[in-house]
Amino acid sequence: MADEGQVIACHTVESWNQKLEYANASKKLVVVDFTASWCGPCRIMAPILAELAKKLPHVLFLKVDVDELATVAQDWEIEAMPTFIFLKDGSRLIDKVVGANKNELQMKTELHAAAAAVQSA
């Protein structure tokens, strides 16, 4: 997948499903940013997530606008923005960060990325 090192926006349910299938097949850790265009804290967190994506190219970073893909947000029971979920095998929720907490997001992303790298080695 040519999107390593960047945050990939999912604009359709089909695109979302394809990315999760890829993550499952490749055994990549997935970090999903549930966001909204009107959400100020989401805009603050966007460059932080982009920086993590550059730093951790072996992790798949996705962005879902809750207004654009409401069914996906409902499937994952997203109630606040931003919410970041961490998925293993493309579908198993292993962690979550709710709110614009830069330090918690960085810590959990690096922790789960390190664990995923060890498991795939």
From TrEMBL:
Pfam families: Thioredoxin
Lineage top rank: taxon: Eukaryota
Source organism per UniProt: Hibiscus sabdariffa
Alphabetized Gene3D superfamilies for the sequence: Glutaredoxin
Thioredoxin domain sequence ranges: 1-116
SUPFAM superfamilies: Thioredoxin-like (SSF52833)
The protein's name in its UniProt record: Thioredoxin domain-containing protein
